[in-house]
Amino acid sequence: MKIDIISLFPEFFDAFFNHSIIKRAIEAGRLDMAVTNPRDFSHNKHGQVDDTPYGGGTGMLMMAPPIFEAVESVVANYDSAINGTYETDEMSDEMCLIGNPGESIRRRIVFMGPTGQPFTQEKARELSTYDQLILVCGHYEGVDYRVEEHLVDETISIGDYVLTGGELPAMVVADAVARMIPGVLGAASGAQEDSFYEPLLECPQYTKPPEFRGWTVPDVLRSGHHRNIAVWRQKEALKRTRLLRPDLLERPLTKEEVKLLKEIVAEESRL
Q1: How far apart (Å, rounded) are the C-alpha atoms in residues 127 and 182?
Q2: What residues does 49 pair with on adjacent strands?
Q3: Is 114 an annotated catalytic residue?
Q4: Per-residue pLDDT tens digits for 24-41
Q5: Tell me: domain 2-178, CATH 3.40.1280.10, correct?
């Protein structure tokens, strides 16, 4: 999978690309990530990418042309690498694919902004199915609305709060999506056991030592009985979800979940 990020601040992503899971995935060839700076597509010698908003108002808006051209560039580069070469059409001055386009490419262009739909694990899973994901980061007081209206496929928000730009949200989305790509985590079950992969919070986890300051690891986890451990984990996940995120249980429950929830309620009534 290729993840392209459109940002005025490529240096923000240096550490993100060069550490932990993302670095290993890139080195293994399971993931390709790059940042493209819209300033490289500015139309004047000063590299201007922002201007005052029409109609007045405070602050500056990112201009549409540099963003459009940055996205079109990474699209052309990816398509060229996969299927063929691009040349400029003299009549329209647009980039056109020359030759056989070959296999269809699944691509999604996303703007990171506060007006978007909330980002969820399900959305991360969906985005991981594309061949190329392009994340557009806003900055300043926002971007020319024509970017949202005519360039991107959707807008995504990571929460109801104000950030300086779209770089941090882009890292959040890229990290969550990368974890969904087969082989990125190494252990096959790693992603499936995370909170929100399934609509439950993750169960409590423990490691050595078995006793610390009088607090002990539950006996079942040290029993070696895999079926009992699996049931305990699901039950504890349900307990945590019921306590901390009961909204996640407002859905059709499985028979096993209903059974375990009844046990949890009965146990609590005896306390």
Answers
A1: 13
A2: none
A3: yes
A4: 999 999 999 999 999 999
A5: yes
